[in-house]
Please model this.
Amino acid sequence: MMVSPGAFSSRCRSCGREITAEAPNCPHCGAANLEERCPHCNAVTTASQDKEMRWHCDLCGGPRLPRADPAFRRSKREVMHLKRAEGARRARAKSRAFIFGASMMGFGSTALLGLWGLIFSFSFPLVLTWALFAGAAALVIVWALGRSSNATKELKAAIDQAWMAAAGDVANRMKGAFSAQKLAQAMGIDEVQAEEMLALLEANDVIRSDVTEAGELAYQTKFRVGAVDTGAGEVDLEALAEAEAIAEEQRLKAQK
Model:
């Protein structure tokens, strides 16, 4: 079968043979093709869909964005939000570990008290000791539950901000009105997720929607980044991303 010129636009990282850029796997050796560097573990690997985080790194499990169309280069403003989301995810994991440990302490002290009472008899010092252990465990559980809840809220908010930053970058690079389908293709997501992103952007007054003559929704950005397609525009966006990352890091250090 003849292959038309331009059908191949990428090479496999493993075997080096030519493949199409959008192929999820190499048809020759089976290696994953849609890979990008993870901002958390720094590995070049793939990302998969996630119920809570939308997408996650297949290696470290941290929140990620899918591989976007190379024509719509992101400014990396989303990276600081993804890192904040990863910090919240790890903080929640620690809080859940405290909950588990405190629960085991409370259960263990109660079991020992019951066993002692069956074999010997209950005494005031014994009951007081159990109450101290059980009360401390209960306090730790309540404290950890609060931290876990706050971390979950922080995780969700940071992921929303990361996706909005990435979607805003893509929208700013769109020429003229665009649809949810076009945004989905550019960001490497499905139309349902694209519509969710467009709703968030519209709610935050980044884009506006109009109904076309065909009765379909078309979107256009309200504020465009000047000279986005030029080298200077890319430098400005990357400088902005770096400044925002530094400000976010200082804010987190101040909170600690």
About this structure: Residues 206 and 223 are 7 Å apart (CA to CA). The chain has one domain: 12-225. Residues 12-225 form one domain.
